Hints:
The chain is 69% helix and 1% strand.
Amino acid sequence: xxxxxxxxxxxxxxxxxxxxxxxxxxxxxxxxxxxxxxxxxxxxxxxxxxxxxxxxxxxxxxxxxxxxxxxxxxxxxxxxxxxxxxxxxxxxxxxxxxxxxxxxxxxxxxxxxxxxxxxxxxxxxxxxxxxxxxxxxxxxxxxxxxxxxxxxxxxxxxxxxxxxxxxxxxxxxxxxxxxxxxxxxxxxxxxxxxxxxxxxxxxxxxxxxxxxxxxxxxxxxxxxxxxxxxxxxxxxxxxxxxxxxxxxxxxxxxxxxxxxxxxxxxxxxxxxxxxxxxxxxxxxxxxxxxxxxxxxxxx
Length: 299
């Protein structure tokens, strides 16, 4: 009887793409330092750094007691690894913001117009529908707690397959999606569409881009970064995939994330093409990992 662990293959995927992310990050910072001299942003605030220190201390403490509390040790270790992966992705995000290429938003807007979607029209329609706007904003902002809750659940579960899948998908989509942004940057709908219904945070996305490319160090870190592909869709899709075998939770979360996808476009954060691009990237990622995402097999 021979047992095969797909998690080993998934870990190799994650490790390889993390190495590529690291090399790409160093390369982009080096290119900027030599040729462009833009001011990079720093998304690592005090709270984030303190959380990392706390996780590392907890990991060290649980390692000492790993024989007595193995489940606790492995859960803390997994969540700490997730934190380190997010930190790498965040650093790569800072690097790709130093892109020397012009935004492609006009092409994305053209696609929206070609299919008959009007961001100003939808924003105006939403203006007097407070309950619907609150629902959409709640769904849109759920990305922050979803990026904490579901990885924590995956880290705690005895079957670490879901956690390894999540890390592999996060690393692959980050390299491809953020790498695409570097060569084809976007500044989101508020940068080229006139509407009084955009909130200030949506304007901050293109303001940051202009500040960086006019050699001004941005003061605020609000707003988003990548419009195409939408990482709201990508990350929520990955979190949804980690609970796909839960017959009660999966359909409920799928419905909620569908509302979130609608919120991305209806609130003016994204173009329709951003959502389609995110779904395409998610699909390619799942196809790539599918042979290694099955349950532990025996032969």
